[in-house]
Every structure is written in structure tokens, then in C-alpha cells.
Amino acid sequence: MLDKIFLxxxxxxWFGFGxxxxxxxDVIAGMLGVTSYSESNLYLNETRALYAFFTILGLMxxxxxxxxxxxxxxxLTFAILMGSFLIGRLLSFGLDxxxxxTSALIFVNELIVFLIAYWxxxxxxxxx
Length: 128
Fold this sequence. Notes:
By secondary structure, the chain is mainly alpha-helical. It has five helices and no strands. α1 (about 1-25) packs across α2 (about 25-30). The longest helix is centred in the middle third of the chain and has 29 residues, at about 70-95. The two termini are about 20 Å apart.
């Protein structure tokens, strides 16, 4: 039951933000306070590529509610993704002092998702 709650929350969060960034990258950029640095709109391409992954990860999370064999893989994917984001953000906080406002909230969200995903991944028995 606990897994279904976590996977539903993860799925809705990441699918929702994924679709938003996939189809409305300027909205995501505005939420994050990011501006484009080039006139080639490459940032739109990069944002859509990243948010397509988030959309698929959200869908995987929702699918794993019904497919028990997929759960372990979803938790591992979340743990790897969030762990790498956390490392990058910690480096950024140290190098450019950006731990404030939105970046701090994003960090806290990613830390919570990482801790839950790692906990559930390490507690579930599954043979690959």
C-alpha cells in the first residue's frame, strides 16, 4: 500500500511537470527564472528533451502501481536521477552560492524523492 501511495505521488508530480515542460517550456523556464542565452531556441529543444524523460518517468511510476515487477526499476531510476541532480546542485550551491528561493525548494523536493526512492529500492526484494 505504501508503494502505491509513493508511486502515485511521484507519477503525478513528474508526469505533470514533464508534460508542462514538454509542451510549454517557456512556462517552466519562467517558473525557474531561467532565460534563454541564445536566439537559436536551443534551450527549447534541451528543455523538451529533458522534460520528455520526466514525462516517461512519471508514466513508468504510474504503470508500476499495477505492475509489481516494474517498481524496483522505477525506484532505482528515481534514486539515480535524483542523486545525480542532488550532487550537481550541491556543487552549484558551493561554487556559485545559489541556495535560495526556488533552487532551495527544488533541492528539498529532490532530496525527499531521493530518500524515499532509495529507501523503497533497498527494502524491496526483487531478482533482476
